[in-house]
Amino acid sequence: MSILAGLRITECAAFIAGPFATMSLASLGAEVIRIDPLEGGLDYRRWPVTATGRSLYWAGLNKGKKSVSIDLRAPAGRELAQAIITAPGADAGLFISNFPATGWLDFATLQRLRGDLIMASILGNRDGSTALDYTVNCATGFPLATGTPGGDTPTNHVLPAWDLLCGMTAATGLLAAERHRRRHGAGQLLKIALSDVAFAVVGDLGLVAEVQINGDERKRHGNHIFGAFGHDFETQDGRRVMVAAVSLGQWKTLCKATGISAAVAALEQAEGLDMSREGDRFAARDALARLLAPWFAERSLAQAADRLDTEKACWGLYQSFSQLVHDDPRCGPASGLFTPIHHPGIGTTLTPRSPIDFTACETLPPGVGPLLGQHTDEVLLEVLKLSSGAVAALHDQGIVAGARE
Amino acid sequence: MSILAGLRITECAAFIAGPFATMSLASLGAEVIRIDPLEGGLDYRRWPVTATGRSLYWAGLNKGKKSVSIDLRAPAGRELAQAIITAPGADAGLFISNFPATGWLDFATLQRLRGDLIMASILGNRDGSTALDYTVNCATGFPLATGTPGGDTPTNHVLPAWDLLCGMTAATGLLAAERHRRRHGAGQLLKIALSDVAFAVVGDLGLVAEVQINGDERKRHGNHIFGAFGHDFETQDGRRVMVAAVSLGQWKTLCKATGISAAVAALEQAEGLDMSREGDRFAARDALARLLAPWFAERSLAQAADRLDTEKACWGLYQSFSQLVHDDPRCGPASGLFTPIHHPGIGTTLTPRSPIDFTACETLPPGVGPLLGQHTDEVLLEVLKLSSGAVAALHDQGIVAGARE
């Protein structure tokens, strides 16, 4: 049995945060029903797409879910969606959305249909105004602290980090609320704003206190690790590695692997520094990088890797997405994390399961990216217990649709 | 009552993933006991630090927790820690660690002390080898896709995104396992590897399929949003904004706010494109950015903001960390998210609560960053039910310590 077997969550959402939350819960065994309008949600054609226009992004973020396609502009369609969201069952009645929680998706309205409904509403800003990862990220301070030192234009991240973290925060919140409901009977509305998730992290990491307590702010340090030693280096054969020493142990193994101990001692004496202190390693980061650069420049990746691994130094290889897929066994079919899965309309590709391993519960294989509307009939028949005649009538009226690709 | 009131989680961890997981659960009301060695963990002096050497990072990531200080090299100290981790109580017996789960922290050993223990073990790589956010991030592909187009050196992110996501994944896993235990009685070991969390996301976002299905890989597009339209622009008064249009609605509001509709129509005709399609907007991204740049260059931030907000266009302002703290009300004392909190040994600073709002449970104020060992006696007396004489003896023997700053 998978760890969330039996739990049912309905989703009316698009893009990353909401879909990632429920995709993660589906990968743990929850039954997730994603309801989309007949033509697909705003993210249905989101890039990257295949030659035939199928979205690889949509397939990835909705894998393992049931897709239900309903005309959400029609009153009868909205009633159907509400019925699915509020369908009975002790392990059902969980709902996540990033649509405005008004009108037919108003919490009080839905709560009249199921008194103990749990609803997670994902917002841009807490006041309900729009914000995306891109328009929140620029405000956090990180893009101005990212990239080459001395530069003055911002560098946006490519990873939608805030969306992902917001989604996983919502997943945690849903499970916390489900725990509360089972103990006390009460459902509730959870609100999670993307910008709150991001700004809270700025505080959690000490960056707000750095401004207020130290009267300082994080500078742009390129690929140096702040407050410790870590940097990227190019090898003789043109590959690039990142080395990191965030503890004294890691620093010692790095020095031993690269044989720079004597040069470091000379530097300590010349500069009055003590490299056993991470603050001093950070202060001397440029000099230390200059000491290390020739060691890497004189060795192939294989030679450098051999020495670093022998001493158990902490390092990583820079890879393109292609190199990750083709060369890194951690992403390959023997990884245990990725399995080749056929996704209808797309093809077969390495697909990840949940990154959590459990010892007392079944680890589920990766989910399949559904076709839009693939599970419409199944959900109407099994969740709403409609008759096959009633389902056929809904199709005839254009209120619902099945898979069309 | 807060949503996780009563739940008790013990932590032996350092740096971000583990501490962030439990800090997030503490912000929802869980009792979190962080056990550290007498001199503090590896992250106890992590930068940024105050003038007196207190870590703002440590305070931020451990706020709301109880800090217990034990000599973890001494057998008696290890037994004490094991007793806290496995202390009885239906809502206790949850443990999170990023230390090697061997020796006194071996799961089977701990399970002999509490049969239904839930333990989340955070690893670097699944095989137990070391990996940090920095050495995983380089391998994901993102740093080579980040930064100015045409550049060939990688750009590391500054936000430790993988650590944060790994931590929140662990929080979700712990709550899932606690749900399973309450229903079926069984505890278990969860393993979550940082590199699995990261590589799974590469798959979830469609980037693995982009390589395998499309035979392509994500290029470096600078501050352009991939597959849609979005870019940064400088205003007349030298500020910089990010505008985003990831839906047709957002594109239309952006055109209306900036008055570029006629120029866009001319561009469509000249290039044979249809800007109602987001793929075409992405294809024409440089031309569209050139159309918009003068509009921003001719307006102050206030003037541009007024137009954009009037039309409800989606945009955000680039800010430094100082500007976020000083100028953005979403980070200020009236935000509802941040409250000025006094942290002992550090001072008063705006501190975030949980970014989740609940309607049926109490929203807790932000937690206080504890002093190392501040709650040693409280935990020994209340959790282990030791006598005050026994606690005094442990202090005398140097096995435990209270706060010393």
Task: Please describe what this structure looks like.
The structure is a homodimer of 405-residue chains. By secondary structure, chain A is an alpha/beta fold. Chain A has 16 helices and 13 strands. A seven-stranded mixed β-sheet of chain A has the order 6-5-4-1-2-3-13, sandwiched between helices. A three-stranded antiparallel β-sheet of chain A has the order 7-8-9. The longest helix of chain A is centred in the middle third of the chain and has 24 residues, at 161-184. The first copy, chain A, starts with 7 loop residues before the first strand and ends with a strand. Chains A and B meet through helix 1, helix 2, helix 5, helix 6 and strand 6 of A and helix 1, helix 2, helix 5, helix 6 and strand 6 of B. Strand 12 of chain A pairs antiparallel with strand 6 (188-193) of chain B.
Descriptive terms for the model:
homodimer, 405 residues, alpha/beta, seven-stranded mixed β-sheet, three-stranded antiparallel β-sheet, elongated
In short:
Two copies of one chain form a homodimer. The first copy, chain A, has 405 residues and is α/β, with parallel strands linked by helices.
